[in-house]
Batch of 2 targets.
Target 1
Amino acid sequence: MVAQGILFFIAGYDTTSAALTHAIYFLSLHPECQQKLYEELKTCDEFTYEKLVHLKYLNAVINETLRLAPSFLRLFRVCVEDYPLGNTDSQINSITIPAGTFMTVSTYTLHRDPKYWDNPNDFLPERWIQPKHHPYAYMPFGGGPRYNHPGVYPDSPGFEPPTYGYS
Ligand code: HEM
């Protein structure tokens, strides 16, 4: 119980404070976004969970902040079965990740990959109003079959938990 309690403090404190610090930083660089967010916040009469999750621009700002500056820069996994990489299936170039291999996924790199994001290095909260990204191109809270992160707003507009299978 104590270990779980400590984990919650470590996992919950630095990640949240880094996210808030980065959000304020990006807003300071983009006063037009700051103004838009201010206008939206003025429409909210009480800052409860139920009301906050429906503030589209606030959630867009948070999602965009975590895209450009994910609090965890990478995820860690162990490969459970031999996994041939999809684009290396010719006999000459075939690469298979053997079961038991320790893997890391750089979310920082993925979140800025031009293959998945237009203007990847720009702070554009608007992209989250009607998001069209691949779910596995955005994983600030992790992803995969046991995805159930305690810090996530499940009903937040624009946030699509990446819960479907691998491909
Ligand atoms: C902006 C805020 C946060 C971010 C970006 C964040 C990010 C992450 C990431 C990337 C992981 C690894 C997930 C994976 O490997 O699939 C993780 C795990 C975890 N986080 Fe957070 N986190 C945040 C806030 C919180 C808060 C507020 C709590 C609790 C109060 C929390 C508790 C945990 C716990 C317990 C784990 C381990 C889950 C497991 O292994 O099953 N996090 N977090």
Target 2
Amino acid sequence: MLTTRFCDTFGVEHPIVQGGMQWVGRAELVSAVAEAGALGFLTALTQPTPEALAAEIARCRELTDKPFGVNLTILPSINPPPYDEYRRAIIESGVKVVETAGFNPEAHLPEFRAHGVKVLHKCTSVRHAVKAERIGVDGVSIDGFECAGHPGEDDIPGLVLIPAAARRLTVPVVASGGFTDGRGLVAALALGADGISMGTRFLCTVEAPVHRRVKEQIVAHSELDTELIFRPLRNTARVASNSVSRKVVDILREGGEFPDVRDLVTGARGRKVFEDGDLDAGIWSAGLAQGLIDDIPTVGDLVRRIVAEAGELITGRLAAACRRP
Ligand SMILES: Cc1cc2nc3c(=O)[nH]c(=O)nc-3n(C[C@H](O)[C@H](O)[C@H](O)COP(=O)(O)O)c2cc1C
């Protein structure tokens, strides 16, 4: 048993989070994470409408009676999704934990707070973490440069970013980006975090609702097999290396602009990768963690293994190192 104040604040057994994942954070995965005693997040925008999100929450409840949350990724966009209606669907469905990401969640906090919903805000810099605490979030999840998805533009890996943030915050801190196992959990705790969040590792589990070829590709990939796309646009995203992501990097490096890559990076293409297992259909998020992933376990086995390995490390190798004369 390994428990931290993160577990007390967010009402879960283990200090392990499955971060929101577009097209992946569905009831099959999230209910398995909940059953394993960790905190899983359905991804709101994977559902086409707020009504569909309410139905997905209900479907997840049929699969587990343990707590789970919803990720609300707030992206600046010309035609934004109806965020207020997604928020209402979350509240009316009785979900008590939300992971916000992408943008300042301030506009949503009063409603969430009024309904007793805890907010874990995910960000990629100390300044945004400090701001999130100031506006009243209940916990902060910090993505280091290693992470899948959007690492921000500061390029600070977790080894420095996590302790730099932890020493400035009083709310529970979750370390995210590059975590896959018990060693990572112990390292995160040592750096001042209260838990870990994982994306790529949970993507490569039996219950993740994606084609098996995607999982096999993660196992085959090393830590070298990611691309940072959209760098010149200052909207960096870390994705799996494939013919499409390499082409996007090349076009932008040679002076191309977003319209020149728009068709390559559509969500519909990325979705095809996950649904059909066509690994070169589009871009798909994956992090440096790929280099530490060698198998496709069930979520239950994965969480049990991480907790057991962390406990053995602390009471075994690390305790023994302290006893050395
Ligand atoms: C396939 C995939 C899709 C993701 N989609 C989202 C998303 O929609 N919103 C979000 O906040 N984070 C998203 N993320 C980021 C994860 O929640 C998490 O922060 C990140 O994966 C942590 O890094 P790791 O992959 O090294 O564990 C995604 C990650 C992956 C792998």
